[in-house]
Design brief:
The structure is a single chain. The chain is α+β, with helices and mostly antiparallel strands. It has 14 helices and 17 strands. Strands 5-6-7-2-15-14-8 form a seven-stranded mixed sheet, sandwiched between helices. α9 packs across α10. The longest helix has 23 residues.
């Protein structure tokens, strides 16, 4: 194999590759529901000209004595990666959820580059594109940029291998963007922006170390804050036992609900002096609480942890693939019944994460584990996964309609993988004035995620009603 066709895989990407387990596959899965029918050949042309303009997607991970390399697949065939697939039964949303569940439970072929496009060419008068990509290729921030580089803002606009443009400002749920949809940088949570800024100088100084041979001691030299944060992670107890935790199996189940109007969520957040994320996370906590109560579990004072991805990618690296994000642990106040009180508690906890170095440490730890023996990484992931119940990702997307292969995107949804023994993933995506909730669960723990996801809308209605009553009370007292 020539040197030009081979590249050394970073230790962080190696860590994500080696996290694969039969019960938790390290795939990012996305769904695009298109307004009109899309022909298979047109999808293949789009993937060939735009997606494959990134040479990484013609490469596959190959083990070597000193780690893993990216090697160009000499037998690459587009038809093996972009395929038509049908829906069972009535071909409705329930059938689509069943199909996505099956695909999320099915490993990618390791003899080929680890990604696939599946086209459902007949769904509610239109089509659906399901995308599966192994996490070792890129994190969610990079993959969103790839997706956006393949879309247009009108059905007639043409794309010819348009590069991903880097972002120089944050995207904060705006309804229009002077710089266009490619001038966006997505941050998972606004409330941790300060944490990113606080650690940015540290990250910039040590990025080469993090990429190749990370050493957490080098971070400790930067101050007691990092040392203190590392100590907290080491002594953090296992998460509270609920039916959401247990021994994972190989079958996953996904569900998503009709999107909520983002404007309504903004109104609630503004009325309560909280961020949109505070409101959304409180709804998640409320839905989980309601489900546990129905199942007869005691929720008094209960908290469960969720790991939250935090973007740590330097601005000059936005256009690159690979993984450059850390994780923070957020404690969800499941035990609080009152929706407004719960929102304020979520806000307080998110505020505490502002100065946290958890994300920086997590990135360095992943790099260290990827560089070391596989058995050490497996043991560390096993320990860390016991400290959380769910993975929770929130992506603020473009607030205008987008077109893929000339076809309007009606809905978008995605799910990130869960590592170790974690059996639940919550995904929140805003797009074109709407907010979409998605959930993936392990069948061994929660066989029907609809029983949880269907509560999200009701939880928001409770928050909205409580906010209106509180505002009315303030007006009356005033």
């Amino acid at each position: 194999m020539s040197a030009a066709a081979r590249e050394h895989m970073s230790s962080i990407d190696t860590a994500w590759l080696r996290m694969d387990r039969p019960y938790n596959l390290m795939m990012i899965t996305g769904v695009m529901v298109l307004e009109d029918k899309l022909e298979l050949e047109k999808l293949r042309r789009t993937v060939s000209s735009l997606f494959l303009s990134h040479k990484r997607f013609k490469q596959k991970p190959v083990p070597h004595a000193n780690g893993y390399y990216w090697e160009t697949d000499p037998h690459f065939e587009l038809a093996s990666h972009v395929r038509r697939i049908g829906l069972a039964g009535k071909g409705d949303k329930e059938a689509l959820e069943e199909l996505v569940s099956d695909l999320m439970s099915t490993p990618l072929d390791p003899s080929k580059p680890l990604w696939q496009y599946h086209l459902v060419d007949s769904y509610e008068g239109g089509s659906v594109v399901i995308i599966r990509i192994h996490h070792c290729y890129a994190d969610g921030i990079a993959l969103i940029q790839v997706l956006l580089s393949m879309t247009t803002t009108s059905p007639t606009e043409q794309i010819k291998q348009r590069p991903i443009r880097t972002a120089l400002h944050k995207h904060k749920h705006k309804t229009d963007h002077d710089g266009g949809i490619f001038e966006l940088l997505f941050h998972p949570f606004e409330a941790v922006d300060h944490a990113v800024k606080a650690g940015q100088h540290l990250l910039e100084e040590g990025m080469e170390v993090v990429r190749h041979t990370p050493d957490l001691l080098s971070y400790a030299a930067h101050g007691v804050g990092v040392v203190s944060e590392a100590a907290k992670l080491l002594i953090m107890p296992d998460d509270n036992p609920t039916r959401f935790k247990g021994k994972p199996g190989v079958i996953k189940r996904v569900a998503w609900i009709d999107p909520l109007p983002q404007a309504d969520i903004k109104v609630v957040g503004k009325a309560l002096g909280c961020s949109i994320n505070d409101v959304l996370l409180s709804c998640v906590a409320g839905a989980l609480r309601s489900y546990l109560v129905e199942k007869g579990e005691c929720v008094d004072g209960l908290e469960i942890r969720a790991t939250v991805p935090v973007n740590l990618r330097p601005l000059d690296q936005v256009q690159n693939l690979g993984n450059y994000f850390g994780l923070v642990f957020l404690e969800l106040p499941i035990g609080i019944a009152d929706p407004v009180t719960r929102i304020y508690e979520v806000r307080k906890r998110m505020e505490r994460l502002k100065g946290s170095y958890q994300a920086i440490l997590a990135l360095g730890l992943l790099g260290t584990l990827g560089f070391g023996p596989k058995i050490v990484q497996a043991s560390a992931i096993k320990v860390l996964s016991k400290k959380a119940t769910a993975v929770m990702t929130n992506v603020p997307g473009p607030q205008m309609p987008l077109y893929y292969a000339g076809d309007r995107i009606k809905e978008m949804m995605f799910w990130v993988p869960q590592s170790g023994s974690i059996g639940m993933g919550v995904s929140i995506l805003s797009y074109d004035g709407l907010v979409q909730f998605g959930l993936v669960t392990d069948k061994n723990m929660v066989p029907d995620p609809k029983l949880i996801i269907n509560r999200f809308g009701a939880e928001f209605e409770q928050v909205l009603l409580a906010t209106m009553m509180e505002s009315w009370g303030e007006t009356a007292n005033g």
